[in-house]
Amino acid sequence: MTVSTVAVGxxxxxxxxxxxxxxxxxxxxxxxxxxxxxxDVDAARAAGHPDVLAPPMFAVVYSAPAVTPAFFDPEVGxxxxxxxxxxxxxxxxxxxxxxxxxATTVVVKDISERAGNGFFVFESTSxxxxxxxxxxxxxxxxxxxx
Amino acid sequence: xxxxxxxxxLRVTPDRYLTVRYAGASGDFNPIHLDExxxxxxxxxxxxxxxLWTMAQVARATTDAGGGPQSLHRLAVQFRGMGLPEREIVxxxxxxxxxxxxxxxxxxxxxxxxxxxxxxxxxxxxxx
Lengths: 146, 128
Fold this sequence. Notes:
The complex is a heterodimer of chains A (146) and B (128).
Chain A: E1 11-18, H1 21-30, H2 36-39, H3 41-46, H4 59-71, E2 83-92, E3 101-114, E4 117-128, E5 133-143
Antiparallel strand pairs in A: 1-3, 2-5, 3-4, 4-5
Chain B: E1 10-12, H1 18-26, H2 36-41, H3 51-66, E2 72-79, E3 89-98, E4 104-112, E5 115-125
Antiparallel strand pairs in B: 1-3, 2-5, 3-4, 4-5
């Protein structure tokens, strides 16, 4: 395949996600979390938090509305039929709690080709309403050779 | 925590409908995770697990080892192979580095049927 690198450096406008208590609980149950800090508002408050905490990987949920349009951008040119999720990194800042509003911006970090496979790397930066960076994600999608 | 220590092993068997619940919870409705027939049509053995669900199992094992939700500072993984529903996944980790400030780097792998489905996972844990 021949990849186009024209979209490298392209940035997408921020998308804001309002973090809800029941969404956190739904997510926590789906991934098998049993820590009461994620599930029980009284336990979270007793530990000094304003509401239930989001598990670290809840970053997937608040980032997705910003990341997905970048993946589907025709200028990036990902062939979804041959795409696999190759790698993922998250770096976390302060913990996210129910009630936070998180704005995520995405940039196309790199597009390259190795051994006929296309590598598409995106970086997401998620910032809460208080200006604190809560998560930076690096998403690597691989488009297998035809 | 010392270099070479193992973290507590995490074993989990995703049930038949786990991918449906995770799709709803995460918003990832890619039919390769939900539709047996579609998955076979695109050359997969059947419906496969979401890689990010499996990564969440690695996160769970490392936050448990680190002492809670705020102990995980960084997690990087590579996805390999495919996870399948209704088969046990085992997450194992080893302490690779210990810093003077109470931080540690863990090397983690998630296996199913003896095959790594997440490998070269690196987690940084430490005080919140």
